[in-house]
Amino acid sequence: MVEGSNPSEPVKLFPSGGNYLKKFSVLDHEMVPEHIVLSEGEVKTLLAKYNMAKGQLPKIKTSDPVCREINAKAGDVVKVVRDSPIAGKAVAYRLVIEG
Amino acid sequence: MAKKDTVEALMKRGVGSKTAETLCNAGFTLSKLRNASVEDLVEAGISSTNANRVMKKIGKPIEKAKEVSPELIDSKLRGLPLPPSIIDELQRDLKRIKLTETQLDKILQMTVAAYEKAKVEPCEAVGIVAAQSIGEPGTQMTMRTFHYAGVAEISITLGLPRLIEILDARRVPSTPMMTIRLEDEIKSDRDKVRKLAWEIEAASPLDVGDLAIDLAEMRIMIDLSEKALSQRKIAPEEVAQRIRDEMGVDVSLDGLKLIIRPEQSSYRELLQLVEKIRGVTLKGIEGIRRIVIRKEDGEYVLYTEGSALKKILQCKGVDPIRVKTNNINEIADVLGIEAARNSIISEAMETLREQGLEVDMRHIMLVADMMTCDGEVKQIGRHGVAGEKASVLSRAAFEVTVNHLLEAAIRGYVDELSGVTENVIVGQPIQLGTGDVEPVYRGG
Known about the structure:
The complex is a heterodimer of chains A (99) and B (444).
Chain A: E1 34-37, H1 40-50, E2 59-61, H2 65-70, E3 77-84, E4 88-97
Parallel strand pairs in A: 2-4
Antiparallel strand pairs in A: 1-3, 3-4
Chain B: H1 3-12, H2 17-25, H3 30-35, H4 38-43, H5 48-58, H6 70-78, H7 84-94, H8 101-118, H9 126-138, H10 159-167, E1 177-181, H11 190-200, H12 205-208, E2 209-214, E3 219-224, H13 226-232, H14 236-247, E4 250-254, E5 257-261, H15 267-279, E6 290-296, E7 299-305, H16 309-314, E8 324-325, H17 328-335, H18 337-354, H19 361-372, H20 392-398, H21 401-411, H22 420-426
Antiparallel strand pairs in B: 1-7, 1-8, 2-3, 3-5, 4-5, 6-7
């Protein structure tokens, strides 16, 4: 970003010289649904309800921008509440894995 | 007391003489009649129509069933195994009409039954149905890549090539494009929007001046245009400094003329330098080649050729919540895998819709789920979903046959024959639909 000796006043694209990170949470974006980390008990109930093992769930990586924001660790299960044009709301679960 | 009195009393109230007599003979008195029901009268030998008439004239007035209250509707809807959209619809429509409780119960019962019937049955071959549902309209799509003045002079890939790009999870789309919406304060202000657009658009030295190679003196001359410079608010010194920084060559400035002398005075060096100069970003976000401003619904929207999601989200003036891009991998990196999944669905739906084809969203949702189930965007082809199958025969039947078979033979792989393709090859029933059902012996 070139700043500096400009005749007229420029629009500062990145205030504070590029170190400025807008108070923007990835979860605010319209394409990102709600992500919630489940507690141990909730995970147990979920697995029991579907009679499945943790590893059979869809996955999400620890490096995923949303995981970083909600501080999900490997082994956690994240509940995703999606907006569905068909059903209104749809719930999905993802197991957090290293990556 | 006498029967005659009863008959007279009945007749006074409008009951036919014959009916009255029958009633009397059956032992009905006026008071008995009042508490009787239609069935009782029918039993006594009166036709049901007549009985109804009699009851209307004499019997207790039928209590009009109570109308249900909105609270009752809500409480009944709460526990139902229905998706939210259907519950919302029921809530809206039921509250608009008058209902009795029995009617309400009946409606809810029928709705739940219809929903259950509409659900997919276990073992249904949804994958194959989805593949066919997307593939069939695919044969009707154009294979030409329109250089299409779709969205204001910016050309984007459409049709079949675009769909293939999406499903192949291409790293970078052939025509990356972003749709940028701005913050409320400036979104209706034309000048401020233009200012921002000039700031974001990547400018190279060639955009602000004409380049000429001076072979005699082995140098490059750039004639800067004052108009272009002032439009983008760049000073000539900046251009010089930028080129100096980026390429470490000797640059001298004379008014509006830039003279660049390379270290080695060779023809090749000069030409290489020209190419490098073309790539220098003077100002703006790298990658954003061109910006078009359009007014939509009262606000100004920026359409860019080129995509740089992370940087744009941080720009002052940009509304980060509504920024869109067609680069799915970028979305996965910056916004997460769920956003990428939504992006795959919307891009595919839009591509099909643009071609005039209608595919039910479910099929595309299934494909998107398969592509994103492991936390990253995988392609459908042999470097992704298809290539990760455990079955040797399945992979061999898909692509690169000999390699797979050879490797499997060398390493002694075992094929469990649990999928569709391999069972078809071998000639056994597949584990879908009927084939997924097995009789079980229960001893005893």
